[in-house]
């Protein structure tokens, strides 16, 4: 307020000129000029001359001229009251512009429309939140129901397998399939070599071993070794049969033998892959056999004969 009432005279003259007034005008003329220019430059007016920057300059000029006229006429109380009224109007104007662009009409009408807009928006948010909660609850219930079904199915399968095994054991006992087992009627040997291993598991493994059971990976390993030895012997025998030197027809025959040999090696390598999947010890895994190296080996074995 002090700054506006002690502006340099040149600035006050510019303010009068901006408001299109002459010095010595009355307060009513100042108000009338301000209202006219505000309608002309107001940002929300539909006039083509709307200009926010010009409206701000008009507002500042109105403040300065209002203070100057009030100081010139010495109605201190009236000037303060007029400025307070202007501030109140300015606050209402700023509030009018802060309705997020909602509504049309006067500030009071826009305020009512904005309040209704906020109520509608809050209602939509509450409904959306409730729908999400209900959807989450339904999804959780469906998951629990599906899990219970899987668990019950697993239990039924386990019980069915146990009943089947028990029936097979009883049937074998009735037929006398267990009568020729070694150690029949004798107590099981106690397992004390490794106390950290379950005695029941050890005794079961011992029974299987004593009755000739072998794990799958041991059988596969034995089969792979026997197959590669048979293929090597067959390749050497075929080469010996062709003799040395080989005629062109014999070379063609040897080529066919080598081609068949390579196919057999590829099939054997698939068994090696299966073996590596089931072998429990990593160091026991096998590498693939190279068909080319095996053919060279067969040729060298023939030459060494």
Describe this entry's structure for a reader:
- The protein is mostly helical and 305 residues long.
- Helix content is 73%, strand content 0%.
- Mean pLDDT is 78; it is low at 1-6 and 86-96.
- Pfam families: DJC28_CD, DnaJ.
- This is DJC28 protein.
* CATH topology label of the largest domain: Helix Hairpins
How many independent structural domains? 3
* Structure summary, number of beta strands: 0
- What does the main sheet amount to? none
Calculate the mean pLDDT score and round it.
Answer: 78
Low-confidence stretches: 1-6, 86-96
Radius of gyration: 52 Å
> Structural class, please?
mainly alpha
Strand content range: under 5%
CATH class (first level) name of the largest domain: Mainly Alpha
Q: What is the succession of H and E elements? A: HHHHHHHHHH
CATH architecture of the largest domain: Orthogonal Bundle
Proportion of helical residues:
over 70%
What's the multimeric state? Answer: single chain
Helix count, per DSSP? 10
Domain J: 14-87
Pfam family, one: DnaJ
InterPro entries: DnaJ_C_subfamily_28 (IPR052573), DnaJ_domain (IPR001623), DnaJ_homolog_subfam-C_membr-28 (IPR018961), J_dom_sf (IPR036869)
Protein name: DJC28 protein
